[in-house]
Amino acid sequence: MIEDLERFTLRLLRNGSVIDTGYGSNVLGSPLYAIAHLARTAAVPLHAGEIITTGTVTDAAWASAGETYTVQIDGLPLEPLTLRYV
């Protein structure tokens, strides 16, 4: 699964239409590299169970009321995530 972190594909959909596609390699080559860099340079040690965000693999999208966004990921064992803005 570690190797899959740089190879996965993510599609960002707004109201059912793809607005961007990104790849794990967009995050400093791999989200794993981003975490390793953080661990080497952080002023405090990382601990098991901490949640770390490594950045985005797509461009940011402005959300407006009434829009629905879905993230679909291929290459990792994750279900799609859908958010509706009210």
Automatic annotation (TrEMBL):
SUPFAM superfamilies: FAH. Residues 2-76 form the Fumarylacetoacetase-like C-terminal domain. GO terms for molecular function: 2-oxopent-4-enoate hydratase activity. Keywords: Lyase. One of its GO terms (cellular component) is cytoplasm. This is Unannotated protein.
